[in-house]
Amino acid sequence: MIALLALALVATSFLLQAHIDLNLIDEGYLWYGAIAVTKGQVPIRDFASYDPARYYWVAAWLRLLDRGIIPVRIACAVFNAGGILCGLLVVRRLTRSWWVLAAVGALLTLWLFPAFMLNHTIALAAVYVAVLLIERPSLARHLLAGAFVGFATFFARNLGLYALVSFGALIVLIWWKLDPRDLTRRGLAWGAGIVLGYAPALVMFAVVPGFWTATVSAARDIVERGTTNLARPIPWPWTEPSLWGVAVGAFFVLVPLCYALLAGWIAAASGDALRRRAVLVAATMTGIPYLQYAFSRADIEHLAMSIHPFLLALVALPFGVSRRWRAPAAALVAAVAGVSLVAVGEVSPFYQRATAPAGYYVPTRLGRWTIWMPWPEANFIRGTIQFNETMVRSDEGFLVIPHLGPGLYALLDRTSPLFQTYFLFPTPEPRQRQMIAELERNRVNWILFEDVRTDGRDELRFESTHRLMWEYIRTHFDVFPVDGLPPKTTLWRRKTASTS
Fold first, then answer.
1. Bridge partners, residue 400, by sequence
2. Phi, psi of 114, deg, nearest 5
3. Of residues 39, 117, 34, the one with CA closest to residue 68
4. Distance of alpha carbon 434 from its chain centroid, rounded?
5. Model pLDDT for residues 403-419, shown as the tens digit of each residue
6. Which residues on neighbouring strands pair with residue 81, listed in sequence order?
7. Which of 13, 377, 458, 470 has the fewest Cβ atoms nearer than 10 Å?
8. What is the pTM of this model?
9. CA 122/CA 132 separation, integer angstroms
């Protein structure tokens, strides 16, 4: 019944939103990578990507259905239903009321934003595995916890690191306050589980040529760059001019404050108190490392992908306090749910379409599927598809810079002429020279260029982050006149390209 409830909640969200809007950048990044996997390419080695697990999951659904955007969203919905199931199994420890389970499930589902990132499910699963470990800290469950850490790492290295930190601390806490025996054996079981969960990656390192070298190189690039995300100013609620901004900013105050208070309580509480409040402990311990993700780029998307352990800790609060504090704790949960409706609801595709002027969203046919999107975007996509079919030969390369490439390559069923599919961070000159050589080798005769300032920063324009490439483009390409392009978007054609 709980599984059916989880499926119903995610299916409802899917039916309301799956045919609305298309994110060419971030969603396109997943879509393009999954298509590449169906063509035999390997993530990280053959194209810039996250860690492999998500691509193989989505690629399996693309093989089953087709390579369209709706199969991608179906794959994500099924994966996220597993996360909501984990969340509901956690809440089931607190109450048997189906009304409460449905309400909490709806709140968790609301925060599955953006749905294509899938990180939410890993966070929800972490809380459930932590609850299991606290309830019965056997060797088998330490092995399970380790397997989860390994799998989370195969899914995303940063999520694996969060799991490593949180479960390492939780195992020490259990030994310290709940069951001070066999720490060494438990640690060994946990370590064996990590190897077991990460086994798919270990196999790939052993049998896929070049995958180990590419993974090390990708990790080194992150270390040299010093960041995984472009930082943004924290949207403190007192600095935001709109109700929506205040709602989002409130979470950047409330989440770390609650975690700090709960961490202090965990440090001071007795073992019996911790055991009786296993959900509160598990959600706090697994959620704290996700603060790094929420604040690494402080926006609604990164907040949403890190908030689910906090929501479960908050829901557990009324069940873990004394009777006189129960009503205020329940009121806090209700208030957070209301603020969540403002914060997430206003940016949801369903709300965006429902509140748009009449005629602004138009149906757009993409393969077998119809997507409703704003008419300027629909016109741009239709024009790009027509241009690709009538102007670009099959033996020519077509480059899209800086950010729209992943989604457009997926739409056009084209392979990116460069390893990178979008261009965000400043790139060293030697790497830019390699890219220029790739453009020559792949006969790139057409370039679609959008002049954007990421976060409004001039230093993040393509001309600044890829100066050598920009000079190459200006020297070897001319602007090709074409109507209907979005503002600040130009089409460039190689000067020596054949006109036949």
1. 448
2. -75, 140
3. 34
4. 29
5. 999 999 999 999 999 99
6. none
7. 458
8. 0.95
9. 15
Instruction: Give CA–CA dist 317/195, Å, rounded.
Output: 35
Containing H/E element for 463? helix 462-465
Residues in the chain: 500
Contacts of 194 (CB under 8 A, 6+ apart): 146, 147, 149, 150, 153, 164
- Give ∠ CA 133-134-135 in degrees, rounded to 5: 95
Tens of pLDDT, residue by residue over 285-325, are 999 999 999 999 999 999 999 999 999 999 999 999 888 89
Parallel, antiparallel, or unpaired for β 397-401 and 444-450? parallel
In this structure, how many other beta carbons lie within 10 angstroms of the beta carbon of residue 14?
A: 21
DSSP string, 34-67: HHHHHTT--BTTTB--S-SHHHHHHHHHHHHS-S
What are 153's two structure tokens? 């790492």
Cβ neighbours of residue 327 closer than 8 Å, sequence gap 6 or more = none
Asked if 424 and 403 count as a contact pair (C-beta separation under 8 A), the reply is: yes
The C-alpha atoms of residue 181 and residue 173 are separated, in whole angstroms, by: 12
C-alpha pair distances (Å), 477 with each of 212, 395, 423, 493: 37, 18, 19, 5
Residue written as tokens 């449905």? 102
Q: Name the phi and psi angles at 293, rounded to 5.
A: -70, -45
Residue 422 per-residue DSSP state: S
The secondary structure element, H or E, covering residue 409 is helix 405-412
229-266: string of b/e by CB count within 10 Å (b at 16+)?
A: eeeeeebebeeeeeebbbbbbbbbebbeebbeebeebb
